[in-house]
């Protein structure tokens, strides 16, 4: 049913996985590890060995629910286990560097959620650790999952095949609205020391990575504005949703009010190494837009447009068509010949958010089995981190054009 | 994260499941049974005990891949197992009646894929068996999974709440295009004795059930036309896709060509017990439409529109709004307050095809645990079967208006 | 700017027009006659000579507002005028036959609004008169204006060019909602003796014609259901909108309540001479759908889809495309190479409802100047009338399959 | 049929109009002047007196085609005519200031196409002339026609009514693709001394004006990048389309190649006086986007979204709705209660590009008759000019944040 490589499923070696963190990202990663082997012909058999978390009761319950054999409150234990070959880091950004570097040094492959770190310095250390580990055959990957939404993987293929010609414009937005209400509590994602930045690093990082992935080019410089619309919020936890956990104890004042120390929104202009102009916007204040990651590329031979709120569709304008029959076509990316989708359901039976993570797991298992460097690499993650830093630097300096380091 | 009932997850009884069939439907049901317990707070813990299939090697491989503990080539073995409480029938329609009736008589709960059977007579026998079983606390459910696409569950809620007023029109279509090419082989779904009917029973059944589910009314009569556009096809199997298996040995002639004995398309008019006019269309010849199950309801107070090719969206026109601001609104059905979706991801992170089956599994486990009759029942499946029969009768009698029996 | 034929604009002969009726259709026809010469290179110069109406004051005011040189209360006067070569009939259906036949016999070219007549007998007489007139070089055209919405003209071209292959399905709907409220008054369009039929003839006629125009085939038989949802309505006029005029004096009872004597909705199945199955729906009870004339064709090589509520777009699926890049493309029909649009604005600057009438006027002037039979002809209008009659006959006879006469 | 003010149509005074320029803008303005009186109840009767152009033969032909009584090659003649009260300036931007100032000083009302001028200095002189003329009851209006697309007029009403709450984001783009081909000739719109700027002033001006109009706020500063992708182009005229005329004689070199001296694209960030962040993009290199003027506003209580390629629709998200039924609704802006549309056709019968000009003409006639200052004023046009200048200044100074003067 799929054109993906075939492996004998009997006598495959196991791939022991240990995961750190078990909230939103931990849930979706667990689902990927539980599901991937039923749909793809993998060269290794993933096994969900141990999940690590800070609270013993919560991590034990999570293990039972999410399908992990064991749990622990000490992520370092995972590094000592011979039956664990891969560390999957789903904890918050402030601990990525410490865990990833330790894991790589311990000879464990690493999958690390994005953004790679909270600062370029951390990300550089991680990239160095990944380079050193690669010498020893130990692999590292950063979890920009949207690259593996089939419509976006297809988009990259069309660009790489030259169907867009020279790319002139990139137009990327990631719009959410979950903190429009000023009474929404000060969850950890709104505190700089825990989250690094706000909308910029949380969702802006995704569209920066996508812009580079889809074009195959780098962002060379930016001009930016960031804004915090609501500065004070009540302390507490959100009942549900993204980043429901409360901020840490240092963030509040005695009156139950805390200070937002990250951006609510970031907008920026950029140029790519391929000569395109790009506009970016990341915000949590776009009322009615829930998870509207959208990106459009305009090239000399055609254009592509995508919106995650209709994630199975890719819109493609082929400028080589006669004008009389040209137009953006809605490709429903569910055909056997499309990336990944042949492994799932018949045409027209769409996939959901979590499938991108299952595809990520599939590709990582293949990479580990074949000793190939997985994409996106820690270097890719570092480059995104440098763009984030350049955005903040430009915003702090009257939007002045700021080259991206490296 | 969810408003669904909470259960203590420790000390829950297991619910042993045995499944018959392991192709398309078997794959998606297996995924549902594997996944449901991680996302929903279930009163029982589903266990994937045994899968049955006709070919020993294939069913054994399927068990390994799909997560079943054991496999067998004799579905009757499942009825003898004390550790199996639920039989999940994913085999083709021609064996539904035999398996379901035997299972119910053996005291097993039954989940049976749609259409319930290949004839009304079979369906009636199944409904009688279900009624008898219910007396003994044994439950039966038919697998019209689309009822549990969150957007359609929400649609039913809006209708039941009166938001549409008196329903005047139902407009239902299920469009596919997988046999447009006359060289597509004569797979089993194109042979009457195996599949019962063609597009009518395979996909038309879904929109009949949805029309009744959404309106809360019954279809009282029909006027129909059916057509077979391509009468002869090569024997063989399709490489992939829907109904890839070849037709049985009696279907072909010596020259490698076989006869299509089912409809390629069915169109029909209907009236509902609520006074609405309805139009239905089921076809496998709608080029470019892959799995376009669409349904629209127009009522005196509002309208609803849905297309499975954008399955996370429900379009709602509220006619009580002032005309200046009225219009079909696109509800992205991924909010915590929407049916089922709170158990999954944050708003805007869409679900896919298989989630409807996971929701079905969740509701069935709840029903078994609480001894409640699950919906849709075998009576619901029987009613659909009678509509299918009326469609064929009308088509065979110059489209004459044909009341639906019962 | 246009690929349309060029004429010397100086020394062109005039084409004197006389119009009967000046309400909704009269307004839009007048606009067409006033505008067409500024945008198209016409071989004759249309002149708005006389408008005829029943009420002297109203027709005089209409003449002033709509740009007619003179007005009269006697349409027969138009037939005596040497300076009038074309009679444009915008009066209601019940008088079409009388006026059109008299005009043709008087040697005047005729443009007659649709539906051609209120009965097949009238339409037959009109078609006979048109045939006789044609012998004398006098031309007749029926005003199915939607044929000249550029997107639909383009659709016809694509079908005629074979881009759809063999057509399997036609799916046509015309949905409005202006009488959903049971307090909407009994305007003339709801009375059989004035309007002939209800939604069927008023809007159903358009989609019947379009189905034949686009496919190039004829409708050979139908099976139908019609319904009147609201039987009693208050007498009076509607403040605005479609058919605002009150019904005639014989329609009401002493209590200010009148009886609806036409259908509110009609649904029907059909077959075409090309072997396609077709579904039709015409209703004034589709809440939220304002003027939703939509039609889709599915053929062996491709599909087309159109919705008048986005009238500048034609959706085309080219099934010859590789599956990986196939999909319905949105053609914005505003290119210089598209039908008619080169005469208007640059690409992307959309047209509106009235432009279809301006295009109709343009083509009729060309036909008159060159002595070519204009399309759609009275024969085309007669054929639609026969389909309407077959629909009513089938609905009155248990939806039995009813061949279309002729 | 309309809620607009009613005037007695008899005994109305005439309003003599003289127009300068007769290409694209002249054609659409002429259509507006010819049509407006048939659809709206105007207090004065517009009369198309004289059109002025540079070439005698061409302007004479244009007068005949477009409906003007006379033509001239000297626009100054229009200022001497007592029967002309309004000068409509459709010539290119480089002559706006001279004509407008002379006309205002001659006591003629002025409608001037946008952008108001090619430089802020010219625009300031024009605004001063308008202020002086206003003292004498002589009025001036700048032609930002998109304000009068009904969907955008409705959008302004919803914002003014507070339905969006505090506006946080503006997202405005104007995308075209007519010079993607590097062989497209060097038409006048690509030469700075004739056009002032490129995409920025031609189409960027529209979205700057719309952002201010819709929010009711001013743009206070910008950070910008501009780019010219194709620097050399062949001399010559385009066969059709936007700006078909060749550039003037000084632009080319002996080899038939000329230099593009304006921007092909401009992207910029902005802040509004209301505290919103805004992103803007104007380009002629967005393949497949023909006239994609789109704008979205996100506020604390709701959002609005519009795309001119579907110009009859306004999308409105009401954040006060319960989340379960909230979503962007597609308002088809064709109801009698919508701005302007009651004067045209029944609901669902859409309007086209030129209607915005007809509405502009209607409102200007009302303003002249009542002595009210029309909107947008020359001050509005000046403010746009200052934003354009700030964009160019920022782009020339490393994208540094540049306050908008005034």
Describe the secondary-structure layout.
The structure is a homotetramer of 406-residue chains.
Chain A: E1 14-20, H1 24-39, E2 45-52, H2 56-66, E3 70-72, H3 76-80, E4 86-89, H4 96-105, E5 109-113, H5 120-135, E6 140-143, H6 150-160, E7 167-175, H7 192-195, H8 199-215, E8 219-227, E9 232-234, E10 257-259, E11 265-272, E12 277-283, E13 292-299, E14 302-307, E15 313-318, E16 328-332, H9 355-370, H10 378-396, E17 402-403
Parallel strand pairs in A: 1-2, 1-4, 2-3, 4-5, 5-6, 7-12
Antiparallel strand pairs in A: 7-13, 8-11, 8-17, 9-10, 11-12, 13-14, 14-15, 15-16
Helix pairs in contact in A: 1-9, 4-5, 5-10, 8-10
What does this entry show, briefly?
Four copies of one chain form a homotetramer. In chain A, 31% of the residues lie in helices and 24% in strands.
Which key phrases capture this entry?
six-stranded parallel beta sheet; 31% helix; homotetramer; disordered N terminus; GFO_IDH_MocA-like_dom (chains A, B, C, D); Rossmann fold; 406 residues; globular; 2 domains; alpha/beta; nine-stranded mixed beta sheet; Dihydrodipicolinate Reductase, domain 2
What does this structure look like?
- Residues 1-6 of chain A have low confidence and may be disordered.
- Chain A has ten helices and 17 strands.
- Chain A has 406 residues and is an alpha/beta fold.
- The first copy, chain A, starts with 13 loop residues before the first strand and ends with a strand.
- In chain A, β2, α2 (56-66) and β3 (70-72) form a beta-alpha-beta unit.
- In chain A, the strands form three sheets. The first copy, chain A, has a nine-stranded mixed beta sheet.
- Chain A has helices at residues 24-39, 56-66, 76-80, 96-105, 120-135, 150-160, 192-195, 199-215, 355-370, 378-396, and strands spanning 14-20, 45-52, 70-72, 86-89, 109-113, 140-143, 167-175, 219-227, 232-234, 257-259, 265-272, 277-283, 292-299, 302-307, 313-318, 328-332, 402-403.
- Chain A folds into two domains: 14-145, Rossmann fold, CATH 3.40.50.720; 148-375 and 384-402, Dihydrodipicolinate Reductase, domain 2.
- In chain A, α4 packs parallel to α5, α5 runs antiparallel to α10 and α8 (199-215) packs across α10 (378-396).
- Chains in contact: A-B, A-C, A-D, B-C, B-D, C-D.
- At the A-B interface, α1 and α2 of A face α1 and α2 of B.
- β16 of chain A pairs antiparallel with β16 (328-332) of chain C.
- Chains A, B, C, D: Keywords: Oxidoreductase.
- Chains A, B, C, D: Residues 155-304 form the GFO/IDH/MocA-like oxidoreductase domain.
- Chains A, B, C, D: Pfam families: GFO_IDH_MocA (PF01408), GFO_IDH_MocA_C3 (PF22725).
């Amino acid at each position: 049913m799929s054109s993906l490589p075939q492996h004998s499923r009997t006598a495959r070696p196991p791939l022991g996985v240990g995961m750190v963190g078990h909230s939103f990202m931990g849930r979706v990663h667990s689902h990927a590890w539980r599901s991937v082997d039923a749909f793809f012909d993998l060269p290794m058999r993933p096994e969900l060995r141990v999940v690590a978390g800070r609270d013993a009761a919560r991590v034990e319950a999570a293990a039972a629910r999410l399908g992990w054999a064991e749990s622990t409150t000490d992520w370092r234990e995972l590094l000592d286990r011979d039956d664990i070959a891969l560390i999957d880091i789903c904890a918050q950004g402030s601990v990525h560097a410490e865990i990833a570097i330790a894991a790589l040094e311990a000879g464990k492959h690493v999958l690390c959620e994005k953004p790679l770190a909270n600062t370029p310095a951390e990300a550089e250390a991680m990239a160095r650790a990944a380079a050193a580990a690669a010498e020893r055959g130990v692999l590292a990957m950063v979890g920009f999952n949207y690259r593996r939404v089939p419509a976006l993987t297809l988009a990259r293929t069309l660009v790489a095949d030259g169907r867009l010609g020279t790319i002139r414009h990139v137009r990327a937005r990631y719009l959410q609205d979950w903190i429009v209400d000023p009474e929404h509590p000060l969850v950890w994602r709104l505190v700089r020391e825990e989250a690094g930045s706000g909308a910029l690093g949380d969702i802006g990082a995704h569209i920066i990575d996508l812009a580079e992935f889809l074009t195959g080019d780098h962002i060379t410089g930016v001009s930016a504005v960031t804004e915090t619309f609501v500065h004070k919020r009540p302390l507490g936890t959100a009942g549900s949703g993204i980043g429901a956990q409360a901020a840490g104890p240092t963030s509040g004042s005695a009156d139950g009010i805390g200070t937002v120390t990250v951006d609510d929104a970031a907008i920026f202009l950029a140029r790519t190494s391929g000569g395109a102009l790009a506009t970016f916007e990341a915000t949590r204040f776009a009322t009615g837009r829930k998870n509207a990651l959208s990106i459009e590329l305009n090239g000399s031979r055609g254009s592509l447009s995508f919106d995650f709120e209709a994630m199975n569709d890719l819109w493609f304008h082929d400028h080589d068509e006669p004008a009389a029959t040209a137009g953006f076509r809605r490709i429903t990316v569910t055909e056997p010949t499309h990336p990944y989708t042949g492994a799932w359901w018949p045409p027209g039976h769409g996939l959901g958010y979590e499938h991108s993570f299952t595809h990520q797991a599939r590709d990582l298992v293949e990479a580990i089995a074949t000793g190939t460097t997985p994409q996106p690499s820690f270097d890719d993650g570092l480059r995104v981190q440098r763009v984030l830093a350049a955005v903040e630097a430009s915003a702090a300096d009257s939007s002045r054009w700021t080259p991206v380091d490296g």
